[in-house]
Amino acid sequence: MVTPVILLGTAATFFCLGGVFCLYLFKIDESNRQGGTKTTPECGKSAEQEPCCTAAGDADIICNRDGKCGNKTKTDLEEEDFEESSEISEDNSSDKSEDSYNESNGSVTSTELNNHQKKERIEVKEVEKEKSKRDTTTDQGKIDENKKREEEKKRTENEKHERKSSTKQQAKKRTSEEKRRRSEERNEERSKRKSEEKVRKSEKRRKSAENYKENEKRRKSQSREQKKDDEEEKEKTDSKRKSNKKELLI
């Protein structure tokens, strides 16, 4: 039972290691296609022409002038600088020969030609700068528009949430007021019933007291009449007894 578990764990471990290795190879291939992977220092205008990337084993890939990681090494830039300086020296020698020719023929001097070429280059750079500025302004406008749209969406969501919350609070308040009103009505009804019950009991006690007084008065009257009748009956009996006694004596 233990051996299959160990084999399964070993297979899973090798499978994971193979996946990690494939991912590493994929990252290396991706970095080669993109011209390198950034390392310190970060590419940027402050790190122009500084080693920043590694690609295909190189460690001296140079940042471009736009601040992005390029695909040229320090050696490539040095060779380009050397070729450029050679071209400049050739241009200067040709300019000198042209100057001597122009001076002899009375045509345009090399200084004027260089100034004109410099002016053209400056104008081209200004046009490119203006275009880049317009593109940047356009991009910033799009960013601001998107930001404004997001803020409007967020504000709408907040207002919707507030309205929903307000509706819930109002419904809760109405329910609470309705419960309170019903409770007050029940209390008033209960108080009214108690008051009526109290009045009925008071009236019943009053009638009971009146009936008691009336009955007591009637009883006393009957008692007096009965006493009077008894006295009269006794007088009659005594008178009759005396009369019978006299007759016996005679």
From TrEMBL:
Transmembrane region(s): 6-26
Region feature (Disordered): 65-250
Record key words, sorted: Membrane, Transmembrane, Transmembrane helix
Composition skew (Basic and acidic residues), residue ranges: 65-76, 115-165, 174-200, 208-250
Compositional bias annotation for Acidic residues: 77-92
Protein name: Uncharacterized protein
Lineage, top ranks: Eukaryota, Metazoa, Ecdysozoa, Arthropoda, Hexapoda
